[in-house]
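Bumping with the actual sequence this time:
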Amino acid sequence: MPTEASFLGGLLFGAIGMGALLFGKAAGSVLKMVLGAALVACAYLIEQEWLLWTSGTLLTLLLWRWKE
């Protein structure tokens, strides 16, 4: 059973990743689609809390800061 922080991180980063994936597909942005897919994969594959929150935060910042 995942902890509360792990569940919340997976839910948060999975939702952000899915939104970025759909937005990237609609906008034709391959970079946003790849970062969104990485966020979704991060939410499902990483079990350790600190690694989930660190990688999710870094990928979200990359998504937010990197403009095409």
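The tokens above came from a reply further down the thread. The CA atoms of residues 53 and 63 lie 15 Å apart.
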